[in-house]
Each structure stands twice: as C-alpha cells, then as structure tokens.
Specification:
By secondary structure, the chain is α+β, with helices and mostly antiparallel strands. It has one domain (27-340): Glutamine Phosphoribosylpyrophosphate, subunit 1, domain 1 (4-Layer Sandwich). It is 37% helix and 21% strand. The chain contains nine helices and twelve strands. It has helices at 2-24, 44-66, 71-83, 128-138, 146-155, 169-181, 263-268, 271-282, 286-299, and strands at residues 26-35, 104-110, 116-122, 143-145, 210-215, 221-227, 248-250, 255-261, 304-310, 315-316, 323-330, 335-340. An eight-stranded mixed sheet has the order 4-3-2-6-5-1-11-12. It has a four-stranded antiparallel sheet with strand order 7-8-9-10. Helix 4 (128-138) links the parallel strand 3 (116-122) and strand 4 (143-145). Helix 2 packs antiparallel against helix 3, helix 4 (128-138) packs across helix 5 (146-155) and helix 8 packs across helix 9. Residues 191-205 have low confidence and may be disordered. Bound molecules: aspartic acid. Aspartic acid (ASP) binds at residues 33, 89, 188-189, 207-209, 227, 229-230, 239-241, 247, 260-261, 263, 304.
Length: 341
C-alpha cells in the first residue's frame, strides 16, 4: 500500500515536471518590427488588429510543427501570414523607395544544414520568403537580386503579382511625408529621433519588418526575415534582413536569429552571426549574447531589436526602442503576444 502511494507521488512529480518543461519550452518566436510604438498612440482597434495578426501567424507556424513538419515549413507559413497582412512592412504593406517602388528583401536559413537562401530588391513576388526558400532549395546559390530573382521565383512556380499589388495608401502617404521632411534621406519605418524621422507626422512609426524562428519536433531550428526595407530608400538599397549573418542567421548548435532595426547598423555589426559566435565560442547564453550585441548596436546609434531561439527552447527578444511587435508559442501551444516595453 505504502509502495503504491510512493509510486503515485513519484509519477505525479514526473508528470508535473514534464508539464512545466513543456510550458517553458518555446517552439516559436516572431517579430513584426520595433520602433516608437507607444500605447498612447495606439487605438484599441489597431492594437487588436496587431494582436490578432501576430496570433494568427503563430498559430499557422505551430500547426506545421504539431503536424510534424520542419521548422522551415513553420517559418515560411508564419511569415506568409505577416507578409499578406498590410499592417507589416513586408509583402503587402511594404514601404516605398524614393522612386515610388516596392523593393522587397527576404532571407531564410536552416539551422541543421546551414543552408541559406535570400532575395533582395524583388518587385513581383507575392511572398518573398518563399522566393528565399526557393533560392536555398532549388539553386546552388545563396542570394539573388532584382529582376533575376523575380524571374527565378516565377520559374520556381511561385505566385507572381503586378507590382501594384504592394501599393497601400498608408505607405504611399509615408513616402510623401518622408520626401517632404527631407527628400534625400532614407528613413526607417518608425519614429526615432536617432534615425532622423522627426518632422514626419501622421506616420505609423515602427520597423514593420517581420521575422520568425522555429524549433521543430526533430529539434531543428530555422529562421527567416522579410521586409520592404526603408521608406524613401535609394534605388537598389539593400538592408540587413536578406544578408545572412547580419539580419538573419540560424545554427542548430547555437540559435536562430531574426533582426529588425536600422539595417545599416545591423550589417556593420554582423549582428545575427555575432550572437551565434558568442554562444558558440564563448559559451554565452542566448539572452546574454543577444543583449551584448544589441547594446553595441545601440551605442553606435542604431535602434531596433531582434528575436532569438536556441535549441533548448530558450528565447530572447531584446529591443532598444519603445516597443516591438512580438510573440511566442510554447510546446504546449500557449501563445503570448506583446507590443510595448
Ligand atoms: N532592418 C530593415 C532594413 O533596414 C528595416 C526594418 O527592420 O524595419 O531594411
């Protein structure tokens, strides 16, 4: 009798420990951009729309993981939701170049194989993250740009749209405001003093780039990022998002990382790979490594944030702006979405 009681206690303890571990183990983390995102500037409707979009994106990726699909599938499915939603500066909702075009960048990386794919300056691919994946899986290259990348995506059978598909009034107005404030200055899709957005009024100040890192049932990580870049950017400007090691990186031995922020600073600090290197060569945790590198970016005058997820399911989501659209989902399906500090 006594032995039975002991056994029951033991089994209950094991069960409780398991539930706890499941709750704490993150399987996905996403961002929808960082910047001057203040509650006082947000209407309840708008806030609800962002929360709903981030939740829907997490659910889409989680469904893939639950079904036993790869972390790459989860990242692609999640980013599709965000690219198709005009609230974010990626896919539909991308910001405009100075010339009034939408030039989109994206990258994806497989933490198991260290294979990676990226596109920059595409104008006709509905979902640039899929074009990045096609470059990784269907070519021997890592990065393709401009009309060649558009053509490659078409030949790979991806959905092609008229460039007009990406036109939204909010982004168009944002470009007109940016040009009025300083026609020569490319501005980030957010309202930081540092990045020179002062003077632009009715603009939704944020970095609306989107990113995702996922951990699948086989224990493999994948990371992806998709963006329209900077409002009023010059022809051909490419930011950090599609640059492997800068805005996007993934390695099963360390972590998957996706950045958002003032791209030039992220490129010069090789942010994502540096975080991975600190973990690999110094044995630093994902949280500590992310903080060290983002602090450096901040000190140099770059603002933004990043998401990172390691193989054990630990996440880091630091940012040096007022807010960052972000969300996580744990192995047991619990979703958490946050916007402000
Ligand atoms: N990092 C992106 C870029 O510089 C912008 C962003 O994160 O919103 O292109």
């Amino acid at each position: 009798m006594r032995a039975l009681k002991l056994l029951t206690v033991l089994l209950c303890t094991i069960w409780a420990l398991n539930v706890n571990a499941q709750q704490k183990k993150y399987v996905m983390v996403i961002h929808g951009g960082a910047g001057t995102i203040l509650k006082k500037n947000m209407t309840p409707d708008k806030e609800a729309a962002y929360v709903a979009a981030l939740t829907k994106a997490l659910q889409a990726g989680y469904a893939e993981i639950k079904a036993g699909k790869s972390s790459l599938d989860a990242v692609e499915a999640t980013i599709h939701v965000l690219e198709n939603d005009p609230h974010f500066n990626a896919g539909k909702g991308a910001v405009f170049t100075h010339d009034g075009r939408n030039e989109l960048d994206a990258a994806i990386m497989d933490g198991k194989t260290l294979m990676a794919g990226a596109v920059a300056g595409v104008t006709t691919v509905k979902n640039p993250i899929s074009a990045a994946r096609a470059v990784m899986e269907k070519s021997e290259h890592v990065m393709m740009v401009g009309s060649g990348a558009d053509l490659f995506a078409k030949e790979a059978g991806l959905e092609i749209v008229d460039p007009k598909y990406f036109w939204t009034k909010e982004r168009w107005d944002g470009l007109q405001e940016a040009i009025k404030a300083d026609s020569t200055k490319a501005v980030l899709d957010h309202g930081s003093k540092k990045s020179g957005l002062l003077g632009i009024k009715n603009h939704d100040y944020k970095f609306g780039t989107v990113g995702c890192v996922a951990l699948d049932q086989a224990g493999n990580l994948a990371a992806g990022t998709s963006t329209g870049g900077m409002t009023n950017k010059k022809y051909g400007r490419v930011g950090d998002s599609p640059i492997i090691g800068a805005g996007t990186y993934c390695n099963n031995e360390t972590a998957g990382i996706s950045c958002t922020g003032w791209g030039e600073f992220y490129i010069r600090n090789v942010v994502a790979k540096t975080i991975s290197d600190l973990m690999e060569y110094k044995g630093i945790s994902v949280a500590e490594a992310s903080k060290i590198v983002l602090d450096k970016v901040g000190k140099m005058g770059g603002d933004g944030g990043l998401i990172a997820l390691d193989k054990k399911g630990n996440v880091a989501m630091p940012f040096n702006t007022e807010g960052m659209y972000r969300g996580t989902i744990t192995a047991d399906g619990k979703i958490e979405v946050n916007i402000y500090k």
